[in-house]
Amino acid sequence: MDYTEFYKHVKNELKVTGTDNQFHLYYDETNNFRSFKVDDKGFNADEHAYFILGGIGIKTDSHDIVEGVDSLFSKFGMQANAQEIKFKHIKNGANNFIELMDKKRVKVFLNWLYENDNVFIHYNYVDNFYFSICS
Hints:
By secondary structure, the chain is an alpha+beta fold.
């Protein structure tokens, strides 16, 4: 599918800036049921759960991306052979937002984001039930 005209509209007519930036994306997803169905027993998944895709984007023209991510791994105290950081590694048992904000790794992550002006958060969620009945 060619998105050229849509891209031009967003950039020129809606005056969205930064559309030429390129990013290396790191992401995690949750509640991706891939196929949301209903049968005689009900839904195949929790209809109240949202599909969430989120993570960070690092500008590809910025300083060494690997070095920046390695520094975050180091600050988290992750094992040298760790390949990724999942939200469960950060939340460390927190059950709500207030508890989450008190976790050491969340504070480390937020400080790391603040110190790196080339790193951005990306986040998207979809209501699986609404999407399945309205699409």
